[in-house]
Design goal:
Homodimer. With 366 residues, this protein is of the alpha/beta class. The chain is 46% helix and 17% strand. The structure holds 5-amino-5-deoxy-1-O-phosphono-D-mannitol (M6R). The site of 5-amino-5-deoxy-1-O-phosphono-D-mannitol has 16 residues, from helix 5.
Length: 366
């Protein structure tokens, strides 16, 4: 049942190229310039005329929501707020029928997310669901939605659910940008083609596993990790840290790279590994200077770099390479080495990777 893998988590990590394809199959026709989601077509006007989009979710699904905030604001120019479902529902939020709410949940059973949906509906908002489990409670409670089609995710640590959620959210953003006219035809076609290439790029990222294993062996006994990223890769830093915490029980914090100087930099010494997502992007030079600041304080740098990178490679202690893709799509590839890093550290520490202590696959308590 684990398909020859030692753990479900590893199997699910390796399924990503094929499940990402399953997610966009029949929905993305790159060469024809078509992206179409059944659940969305009737509500395009509702989305593009919305005052704002509010995304509610928990855990890894919340991180996918944060990635979506960047891509929606970039491509569709609609203000987006991303809320922890649990905070949203207990806070008397300002919400009206002009808001569109997107609820993201792998299981479709998370109690806090479900309660947030009910609250939003009671205020008249339109609620769109992105779920993996077909027929789940959240998929039934939302007005419309899109399934991720990632197949069953057994490992408690979410992996393929995250990348397929981002795939769906990216398709939604592209469809809306096209309808609203906020994207040029050239860029639209470019994104469609690049999205269609993502399964191959993920495949290439998976090929670096041996190198990642070596890095895992070096750092497995440390007690703290810092993860840094900017822009689209800030949520990936959060997700990388969550993955490490959940399955290895090592304390890890994700931070926007530029916030480091406002506090966390005090933690840096020769003991502290800092995972920096430093792929080619609009912020590349800034990330390079963040790395220099860490090096000056003797922190150990593990950098996620774009293929062919030299500047970061020269500065970093260890690098994990990912293929090049437009910045908006980089989370789909930069996530891969971080999943593998946590996995191997947890295995080396003898942890119960698929069923970490104190955690359940779906959190149905509030
Ligand atoms: O099923 P959901 O996507 O609603 O679950 C949300 C979180 O409970 C979930 O992502 C959790 O954080 C995972 N264990 C992360 O790996």
């Amino acid at each position: 049942e684990k398909g020859g893998y030692d753990h479900f988590m590893l199997k699910e990590i390796y399924e990503q190229p094929s499940v990402i394809k399953d997610t966009y199959r029949g929905r993305l026709l790159a060469e024809k310039g078509i992206v179409k989601l059944g659940g969305l077509e009737d509500y395009i006007e509702k989305f593009i005329n919305a005052d704002r989009i509010i995304i509610v979710a928990c855990g890894t699904s919340w991180h996918a929501g944060l990635v979506a905030e960047y891509i929606f604001e970039d491509l569709v120019r609609i203000p987006v707020e991303v809320e922890y479902a649990s905070e949203f529902r207990y806070r008397n939020p300002v919400i009206s029928e002009n808001d569109v709410v997107i609820a993201i949940s792998q299981s479709g059973e998370t109690a806090d997310t479900l309660a947030a949906i009910k609250l939003a509906k009671s205020k008249g908002a339109f609620v769109y669901g992105i779920c993996n489990v077909v027929g789940s409670t959240i998929s039934r409670e939302t007005h419309s939605g899109t399934y991720t089609h990632a197949g069953p995710e057994i490992g408690v640590a979410s992996t393929k659910a995250f990348t397929t959620q981002i795939t769906v959210l990216t398709m939604i953003a592209l469809r809306l940008a096209k309808a609203k006219g906020t994207i040029s035809q050239r860029d639209f076609m470019l994104y469609l083609r690049e999205l269609d290439l993502i399964p191959d790029q993920v495949e290439k990222a998976l090929k670096t596993e041996d190198k990642i294993k070596e890095i895992a062996a070096v750092f497995k006994d440390v007690r703290n990790f810092l993860y840094l990223g900017r822009g689209y890769n800030f949520p990936v830093a959060l997700e990388g840290a969550l993955k490490l915490k959940e399955i290895s029980y090592i304390h890890a914090e994700g931070y926007p790279a530029a916030e480091m100087k406002h506090g966390p930099i005090a933690l840096i010494d020769e003991q502290m590994p800092v995972v920096v997502i430093a792929v080619k992007s609009d912020h590349y030079d800034k990330v390079v200077s963040n790395i220099q600041e860490i090096k000056a304080r003797k922190g150990k740098i593990i950098a996620v770099v774009s293929k062919g990178d030299t500047a970061v490679r020269d500065l970093a202690d260890y690098v994990m390479e990912v293929p090049k893709t437009p910045e908006a799509l980089t989370p789909l590839v930069t996530t891969i080495p971080l999943q593998l890093l946590s996995y191997h550290i947890a295995v080396m520490l003898g942890r119960n990777v698929d069923q970490p202590r104190n955690l359940a696959k779906s959190v149905t308590v509030e």
